[in-house]
Design a protein that fits this description.
Chain lengths: ~290, ~120
C-alpha cells in the first residue's frame, strides 16, 4: 500500500516537514481532551475506542508517521468489532474521518501557516486510515465467506449408512470438480472404514448434469470399483436421463436407478438381504450368510 | 532390487506388496508370478496392495496386465485393499482397470474367489 504520509511534498524541505509535524504533535497533545470531546460528539462511536485511537494517532504523528503498524492493528480491530456490532463500513470510516472536523475547530483558533500545513498533512493521514478501516472490513468479510464456503463443502457431502455394508451419498446442489473431489475422498474413506461393499450415489438434488458432472460421477464410481465396492447411481430424473442421452454420455455397465428406494432394493439383492412383505406391512429383514 | 514374495495358501497364491513399487520390481513380480502359477497349478491369485501409497501409470497398467496374464493361466486374480488415494490417482490417470476384480480387504478377496470358483467351477 502506498504510504502517502511519509512523502515529502515538493517545495518543502525535510526540516520544514519535521517542524510541521512537531507543531502538530504539540497541538494534538495540548488539546487532547477537547479534540476527543468534539470527536465523540460529532460521530457515533464509544469514547474509550476513540481515545485509544487518538493516542495511537498522536504517537504516529510524533514519530513522523513512519511506523503505522500499531495504528493499523488498532484500526483493523476497531473495524472488526464495529462490523460485529452492526455498523456499516461507511459509518466506521466516517467515524475516523470525524477526527479531521474535531481537530479543525482547534486549528482555526491557532491559525498560522505552519499549523495549517500540518493540518493538511494530518488530513491526508486520516484519509488513509479511514480507507484502511474499509479495507479491513472487506478483508474480514472475505474471510468469513471463505470459511463458510469451506463449511458448506463439508456440510453438503455427508456419507450415510443405509444398512450393514451399504452406504449412500445424497448429493445436493451443483457438482464441480472441487466438490466431487471431496465426495470421492469421503466416500472411499467411508468404504475403508465401514467395509461397505455397496454404495449408492443419489443425485436427486443435483439440478443439472452436463458432461463434466457426468465425468466426475463416473470417476467416483470407477474409483469405488477399484477398491472393491459396487456403486449404484440413483435419483435420475426424466429430464436428466434425457440430457445424458442427448449429450451421448456413456454410463457403460454402471447400474442406474430412478429412486433411492430402488437402489437400496438392488443393493439388498446383491448382498443377499431379503425383504419379506410389501410396503405398508411389517417388514422383516433377514441377512443370509454368504 | 526388492523382490515381492509370493506365498502359497491352499490353491491360492498370496502376493502381499510391502515395498514401494518401481518398474523393475513390478516386472520381476509379473515374471515370478507367471512361473509360480504354472508350477503350483494355482487357481486364484490375491494381490494385496493395502500398504502401497504411490502408484504411477506403469504400475497401474501392470496390475491389469498381471490380472489378464493370470486369467490366461486359468487363475482368477483379485486386487485387494486399494487405498482411496491410490484409487483416485488411477482414475485420474484414466486407468479404471476394467477387467480386474477388486475387493476391500484380504478376507473379502478370498470370499470373492470362492464365490467366483463356485459359480464357474
Amino acid at each position: 500500500m502506498p504510504d502517502g504520509t511519509s512523502r515529502v511534498p515538493s517545495g518543502e524541505t525535510l526540516s520544514d516537514h519535521a517542524d510541521v509535524e512537531r507543531r502538530l504533535g504539540e497541538l494534538l497533545r495540548t488539546h487532547e481532551e477537547q479534540v476527543i470531546r468534539h470527536w465523540t460528539e460529532s460521530v457515533s462511536a464509544r469514547r474509550d475506542e476513540l481515545a485509544e485511537l487518538y493516542r495511537a494517532v498522536l504517537r504516529a504523528v510524533e514519530e513522523g508517521g513512519r511506523d503505522l503498524a500499531d495504528l493499523r492493528g488498532l484500526l483493523a480491530e476497531l473495524s472488526r468489532s464495529r462490523a460485529r456490532a452492526g455498523y456499516s463500513p461507511a459509518e466506521t470510516s466516517k467515524a475516523v474521518f470525524g477526527l479531521k472536523g474535531a481537530l479543525y475547530e482547534i486549528v482555526v483558533t491557532h491559525a498560522d501557516d505552519e499549523v495549517l500545513r500540518g493540518f493538511i498533512r494530518f488530513a491526508r493521514l486520516i484519509d488513509d486510515l479511514g480507507l484502511f478501516t474499509f479495507e479491513a472490513y472487506a478483508e474480514a468479510r472475505e474471510k468469513i465467506i471463505m470459511d463458510q464456503a469451506e463449511q458448506l463443502l463439508e456440510l453438503s457431502t455427508p456419507v450415510v449408512k443405509l444398512w450393514d455394508g451399504i452406504v449412500a451419498v445424497p448429493l445436493i446442489g451443483t457438482l464441480d470438480s472441487a466438490r466431487t473431489q471431496v465426495v470421492m475422498e469421503k466416500l472411499l474413506e467411508t468404504l475403508v472404514e465401514t467395509g461397505a461393499e455397496h454404495a449408492v450415489i443419489d443425485i436427486t438434488g443435483v439440478p443439472a448434469v452436463d458432461t463434466q458432472v457426468a465425468q466426475h460421477l463416473l470417476k467416483t464410481v470407477f474409483a469405488a470399483r477399484l477398491m472393491g465396492a459396487e456403486c449404484v447411481i440413483s435419483g435420475i430424473r426424466p429430464q436428466i436421463a434425457h440430457t445424458i442421452v442427448t449429450l451421448g454420455i456413456e454410463f457403460g455397465d454402471i447400474v442406474t436407478k430412478t429412486s433411492l428406494a430402488d437402489a437400496l432394493a438392488h443393493a439388498f439383492r446383491r448382498s443377499g438381504v431379503q425383504v419379506s412383505g410389501g410396503p405398508a406391512t411389517r417388514v422383516t429383514v433377514r441377512a443370509e450368510q454368504a | 532390487m526388492d523382490r515381492v514374495p509370493i506365498l502359497k495358501l491352499g490353491d491360492l497364491l498370496l502376493v502381499s506388496i510391502q515395498v514401494d513399487l518401481d518398474d523393475q520390481t513390478v516386472l520381476a513380480l509379473k515374471e515370478d508370478l507367471a512361473e509360480v502359477v504354472v508350477a503350483r497349478g494355482a487357481r486364484g491369485v490375491i494381490i494385496d496392495i493395502s500398504v502401497v501409497e504411490i502408484v504411477d501409470s506403469f504400475t497401474g497398467r501392470m496390475l491389469a496386465t498381471i490380472a489378464e496374464m493370470c486369467r490366461l493361466l486359468d487363475a482368477h486374480a483379485v486386487v485387494v485393499g486399494m487405498r482411496p488415494a491410490v484409487a483416485i490417482t488411477l482414475v485420474e490417470l484414466g486407468l479404471s482397470l476394467g477387467g480386474v476384480r477388486t475387493a476391500l480387504n484380504l478376507e473379502r478377496g478370498v470370499a470373492l474367489l470362492d464365490h467366483v470358483r463356485g459359480a464357474a467351477p
